[in-house]
Amino acid sequence: MPEALAEKLIDFQKQSCPTVGFVSPGHYLPLVAETIQIARRKGLTVPVIWNSNGFETVEALVMLEGLVDIYLPDFKYWSEGSSTEYSDTPGYPEAARASIKEMFRQVGPLKLRDGIAYSGVCVRHLVLPNDLADTEEILRFIASVSTDISVSLMSQYNPVYRADEFVLLSRKLRPSEYWKVVQIAEELGLSNTLIQEPDSSPDHYLPDFDKRIVFHK
């Protein structure tokens, strides 16, 4: 598989893709690392993106040092209680904190060339209603690592699937809740903060879950 996937990465580069990347690839990490190594030997020069939920171990990420150019992790919850209750992911907050530190150690702040990222870390955080993610604590942690880290504050939370089982998660995010955390980010000195207009979220940022896909033979 690594040989074939490496060829695909080279094909993307030949088609003028400015970057190549892997989404939620943690469970294939050794194979992904091998794939990137093979692709580099075959002439891959565009930046490689690791797009994940941030639930990785430092030991695993060390395997990617020198292979991944851009890390795009989530930081979903600050507290163990919220992480376990709402996503059934005990151990996630501690792992995310350690992972983000390691990612930043490897590649540093996000760097752009002609408007396109070529290196660095950008942490995504979905702001939840009723501050269930403890967003201020997350932002304080990120700022303690470095105020140069880029942070994408996402406003598109939408109560779908089992959200109605949790009263505090059963509504959309209010604009006032979102702008409050934007202000906190500014006060903490996180100058590289990407924001979304909450008045248009989640309508502009969510796929049409009711849309049917038709496959033609």
CATH superfamily of the largest domain: Aldolase class I
The main β sheet shows up as: 7 strands, mixed
**Gyration radius, in Å:** 18 Å
Q: What separation lies between the terminal Cα atoms?
A: 26 Å
Structural class: alpha/beta
- CATH architectural name of the largest domain: Alpha-Beta Barrel
| Total number of distinct structural domains | 2
Number of helices: 7
Write the layout of secondary structure elements.
Layout: H1 2-14, E1 20-23, H2 29-41, E2 48-52, H3 58-62, E3 70-73, H4 80-87, H5 92-107, E4 111-113, E5 116-126, H6 135-145, E6 150-154, H7 175-187, E7 193-194
Parallel strand pairs: 1-2, 2-3, 3-5, 5-6, 6-7
Antiparallel strand pairs: 4-5
Structure description:
- There is one protein chain.
- With 217 residues, the chain is of the alpha/beta class.
- It has two domains: 1-46, no CATH class; 55-200, TIM Barrel (Alpha-Beta Barrel).
- 36% of the residues lie in helices and 16% in strands.
- The chain contains seven helices and seven strands.
- The chain has helices at residues 2-14, 29-41, 58-62, 80-87, 92-107, 135-145, 175-187, and strands at residues 20-23, 48-52, 70-73, 111-113, 116-126, 150-154, 193-194.
- Strands 1, 2, 3, 4, 5, 6 and 7 form a seven-stranded mixed β-sheet that branches.
- Strand 5, helix 6 (135-145) and strand 6 (150-154) form a beta-alpha-beta unit.
- Helix 1 (2-14) packs across helix 2 (29-41).
- The longest helix has 16 residues, at 92-107.
- The two termini are 26 Å apart.
- The model has no long low-confidence stretch (mean pLDDT 93).
